[in-house]
Amino acid sequence: MPIIGNHVAVNSGRWRLAVVAFAVSVIGVLTWLATSEDALDVGDKLASVTGAVLALAGLVVGLLTLRAGAAADTSGDPAQALEDLAGLVLRQWEREAGARGLTRQDPLDVRWASTRRPVAPSAKDVIGPGVVAGEPLRLKLHGGVGRLADALFELPGHQLVLLGEPGSGKTSAAMLLVLHLLARREPGDLVPVLLPLASWDPAEQDLDAWMAQRISADHPDFRARGVHGPGLARALVEKRLVLPVLDALDEVGSKVDAVRGIARVVGRNSPFVLTCRADDYEEIIRETGVPVGRAAVVELTPVGAREAARYLEAGVLEGDRRWRPVTEALLREPDGVLARALSTPLAVYLARTAFTPLTSDPADLLELPTSSAVEKHLLEAYLPALYPCPENPRRWLAFLARRLAARPQARNLGWWRLFLMLPGPRTVVGASRGLLTGAVFATTILLHGRLSDQPVFAVWWLVVLAVGAVAGAVAGALAGTVVGAVRSPDAARLPSYLVASWGRAAGGLLAGGLAGIGASALADQLASARTPLGVVVTTGSIIGIGWSSQALAKPISVNAPVDPRGGLAGDRKATIFVTALATTTITVGLSMWTWVEGGLDVPALVAMAGLGLTVSCVWPLSGAWVDFTIARTWFALCGRLPWRLLGFLEEAHERGVLRQVGAAYEFRHQRLQQHFSR
Hints:
Blueprint: H1 12-34, H2 39-70, H3 78-99, E1 111-114, H4 123-127, E2 142-144, H5 148-154, E3 159-164, H6 170-183, E4 191-196, H7 207-218, H8 229-238, E5 242-247, H9 255-266, E6 272-277, H10 278-288, E7 296-300, H11 305-313, H12 324-332, H13 337-341, H14 345-354, H15 371-386, H16 391-406, E8 413-414, H17 425-451, H18 458-486, H19 502-526, H20 533-551, H21 564-598, H22 602-618, H23 624-637, H24 645-654, E9 658-661, E10 664-667, H25 670-676
Parallel strand pairs: 3-6, 3-7, 4-5, 5-6
Antiparallel strand pairs: 1-2, 1-7, 8-10, 9-10
């Protein structure tokens, strides 16, 4: 199966704009020099700067042109995009299935059968006319999870609804279904994509738009600067080249609207799979009065006592007989308290994990009087079995679970949304940013004074720093409060995956800067003004920032699905890159102004650099990484979360407490989240 490579999409329109920008800059500067009273003096200074700039511009443009010409352009190839998506989805869910233990040699045999609930279309609608003789009364589909893919393909409409009780393994079954479908897929076939429905608001987005957005969010190749872009993600969805596996309908806020939205999109012929809690789905269909398309509806059956006993004894050390009393009780009383408590994959997983330590005794379960008592015991023993010292992990997980419960619309632990868990999040973040900005500005003033041989006393340093930091914090808090009042309380800055290419940034900066210089010079002449050269150069340089960081940014191409650490690293790289670029540009522009108008010395250069960094801190260039760093610092100082937060979340994922969805984490099951939030 083809996997994407490092493609670079060439946008010839941007290079045409660069040529136009250069022409405008030349005309503007020449016009400005021709009408300037001191044209010779200023022209000599400008020529010495421009000569080096243009030489570097020629080198950069030449190198980039050669590189772009040798690169392959796949941004408009739907067939390649489809194969790339298949490879990314396969990698994403192979890794997650391995983390959940679904690919082990002794998996739990989870069964399913046609539901008896009044929620399915008639057997004739599902099978279609003329397929079988007579009038079928009821479908009798059944099998193990490994046969779900076969059942889906055997259905004429390729539509399936999978129901189950809480903890019955619906998400795991959907994940394995996607992997089985990909294993039998041929080039050009539909690509199954597992999409958790929790983030969908059917009142705000139709299903197609949301699915395309989720594909772009999980796979950067389908983002705005990716090699395929969001347009191809939408095209693949609208052309029905994606087989949506829609997981957890019960987690959508407006379930009835969601079912109606799904029915409008899939109709009777578009393949899809939908999972939902059985009771919730029955209530939804009772309210709508119509089934979803022509989908067959099957339901996961409880784990039998014999299968639970087999699974619990599998994979233990030779001679380990600790499970023997439990398995004998299960086989002796298949409808007893213990068998009922261990009738879901979640409960069996908790039991096997909680009693992994050789010092534990599973026979303790036999002394518990009710199924609820068994579940409570397993939940309490779960974390100590995973962590040698569970006190800190328990406290950190409890904090995250409570904050998620308080903000149910957040639903998952996306690192870029961590700051939303702060009290007054935008005010705190704004104050923190303002404090940093004020400290940078105060430090600039103090360094300038020091280098200018002005007496600067230690007390004066402290006073200026304190005043700058406090003033910045107050201004930032006010700004954050205003932003919080006008923005959605759950809106968060999405991570950026800009690839920092200094060569492309230099080319963009030159093109944008020259365009800005020319435009500023022309505007100056049209207004019959006499603006100093420094103002013209500075204005043009600042315009170049946006050009260099956006128009000529290198497209994204990754060979693996997005993971939280990779997403954070990408956003951090983009933030530092753009901030450094902005600081350098503003510093150079201000320094040129100072040099042309009256000379430049070391103190002035330091002052210009400080001002450039200050403006960069104020300017909203920094990404989600800054918000995350602020929130992580606050929570770590308060003892709520560890300093190495991502490391802790990764470890919790590896140990099975969390599951990964795209670049975010979730608790493995809502029951675990409810337990930790107590």
